[in-house]
Write a structure and sequence with these properties.
Helix content: over 70%
Radius of gyration: 38 Å
Mean pLDDT: 76
Shape: globular
Largest sheet: none
Number of helices: 29
Structural class: mainly alpha
Oligomer: single chain
CATH class of the largest domain: Mainly Alpha
Low-confidence stretches: 1-23, 31-57, 91-116
CATH topology of the largest domain: Growth Hormone, Chain: A
Strand content: under 5%
Length: 547
């Protein structure tokens, strides 16, 4: 029989009542079976015992007892069966009657005493999964991406903008200034010493933290020292400091990329990298804007000291960064050199690895070539330098920043794979805006509003594509070898852009502006087609194992 205590409150679940009933029914059957077995054993003993065969009356007496006991057991079994069926019918009626109460009880306080820990766990899990978008955007992790992105971009723009202006202001020849472009070589070949960053520590503060602190100390000192020397008298020292800044900056990029990959959750790779890249771009406003304005009023020594001081908050933050625990980190230099390549190929396979490399080459190539000669294009359309400086440069910068940030936010919902499809399509289509400008330019200079609209679309689309692309590069690396793998992938993405952009002038002369931009649109299509292999729309984002 089912215990009445198990059916008194149905909020504990009718399933529990049926379970208890089933258990008791099984127990009853076992008792019956046991009783029958005992009875038959007793009869067998009485019939086959050697004592039974002596007097015949004992045989008759045993047979009578056996028959009586069998009849009693049969009646008892029938009675218990009737009782069990009645209990089962009662439980079934209660289940039908209180089904709604049962469903409600699972959500009410009546079940709190039954599953309080499960309810609490489910609530916490839902809160984590449905975390507010604003909380993710303004989290501590995004703050770290913002500051480190600024620290990463500043040195590059010091070399591109501030140092070039300093050399020209001091009267150096354009040929000498042009030769300083060789200082950018460390950014392209940084993967050569990335294994050292993956393998060795300097101050024993942490594998990543050590290199961040060291590179920033070198950058602050070298940038500040540039203002102490006259380019005419100490051009060798200036060149040496510039190379030192480029080397330290490229090293900082290696370790910051690796650290960002390690501390960002997989779901925030898109947003975190978008924040980093856009902070990288905005950092150019200091050496390329504020510092140049200061140069008209104060000495160059003060200008470079101020610019270097802008990196101090980043250095202070670096002192408090928490080192991430990553297993399987390389223990020897050989492992740091060989393992990143073998791990990547073994994880993806040779064929898939080749597809990824080709994708890295081609995904941004159309957009990059279209912007390579943007300023000459604006001038040929008839815009003056003031319009180009105020409209083109500012609209381009902030549209790229807005596109990158929006791309990071959208990737929280879309995922990296689908973002590559959506943002890549926008990136390709918006190149056609330049085709429209070239067509309108045949009959006169297009309006400034038309120029602004085209630039918002083109640079905004490029910002979206870059956000997804950088997140994809981070996703394809293993945290144990992030420094080397990410440095190699980013170098691959820079090499074709450098060589292809070098021939854009010849293409424009041969095709004309309108056909050139059509060509840029067409050459962007192969990168999109490779998405079928490297990031299928229906496939979930696959991230390298973090263990």
């Amino acid at each position: 029989m089912v215990d009445k205590a198990n059916t008194k409150h149905f909020s504990e679940g009718s399933e529990s009542a049926f379970s208890n009933h089933k258990s008791e029914e099984h127990a009853n059957r076992q008792d019956k079976s046991s009783s029958s077995k005992d009875m038959y054993d007793l009869a067998a003993q009485n019939l086959f015992s050697k004592d039974v065969y002596d007097p015949a009356d004992q045989i008759m007496e045993s047979a009578a007892k056996f028959h009586e006991h069998a009849q009693t057991l049969k009646k008892s079994a029938a009675k218990e069966q009737d009782s069990d069926e009645a209990a089962k019918e009662q439980d079934s009626n209660e289940a039908d009657k209180d089904y709604g109460a049962y469903a409600y009880a699972n959500l009410s306080a009546d079940t709190a005493d039954a599953t309080p820990q499960d309810a609490t766990a489910n609530t916490k899990s839902d809160q984590i999964e449905e975390k507010s978008l604003l909380v993710q955007i303004f989290s501590k992790r995004m703050g770290i991406c913002l500051v480190t992105g600024f620290a990463s971009g500043m040195p590059l723009f010091v070399l591109i903008n501030l140092l070039s202006a300093y050399l020209r202001k001091e009267g150096l020849d354009l040929k000498v200034i042009g030769a300083f472009s060789l200082m950018m070589v460390p950014y392209t070949w940084k993967f050569l010493w990335a294994p050292f960053v993956d393998r060795y520590q300097i101050f024993r503060l942490g594998r990543r933290k050590d290199w961040i602190i060291l590179s920033q100390i070198v950058l602050i000192g070298a940038i500040a020292a540039m203002g102490w020397f006259s380019p005419k008298e100490n051009i060798g020292i200036i060149a040496g400091l510039a190379i030192l800044v480029a080397f330290a900056s490229a090293t900082q990029d290696i370790v910051l990329d690796a650290y960002r990959r390690e501390f960002l959750p997989d779901v925030e790779l898109g947003l975190g990298n978008a924040v980093f890249v856009n902070a990288y771009r905005v950092a150019g406003l200091i050496p390329g804007g504020v510092s140049l304005i200061m140069a008209d009023y104060v000495s160059w020594h003060t200008v470079f000291t101020f610019t270097a001081a802008c990196l101090i908050p980043c250095f202070v933050l670096s002192l408090f960064l928490r080192e991430q625990n990553v297993s399987n980190a390389p223990r020897t230099l050989k492992e740091a050199v060989v393992e990143p390549f073998s791990e990547f190929i073994s994880r993806r396979g040779v064929k898939a690895a080749l597809f990824i490399v080709c994708f890295v080459f081609l995904y941004k190539i159309g957009d990059s070539m279209a912007l390579a000669l943007a300023t000459p294009f604006y001038m040929d359309l008839g815009y003056n330098l003031t319009t180009i400086g105020i409209v083109a440069k500012n609209v381009g910068l902030w549209s790229t920043v807005a596109g990158g940030l929006l791309g990071g936010v959208f990737m929280l919902k879309l995922g990296i794979n689908r973002a590559l499809w959506v943002f890549g399509f926008i990136q390709v289509v918006t190149i056609l805006g330049f085709v429209l400008l070239a067509y309108l330019g045949k009959s006169g200079t297009p309006s400034v509003w038309m120029l602004s609209l085209v630039l918002v679309c083109e640079y905004g689309g490029g910002g979206l594509g870059t956000a997804a692309f950088v997140a994809f590069l981070a996703k394809e690396t293993n945290p144990a070898y992030t420094a080397t793998q990410l440095a190699l992938l980013t170098s691959f993405s820079a090499i074709p852009r450098t060589f292809c952009n070098a021939v854009t002038g010849y293409l424009v002369e041969g095709l004309g502006w309108q056909n050139f931009f059509i060509f840029c649109t067409i050459i962007a299509i192969p990168g999109m087609l490779l998405l079928f292999k490297v990031a299928p729309w229906s496939a979930k984002d696959e991230v390298a194992n973090k263990e």
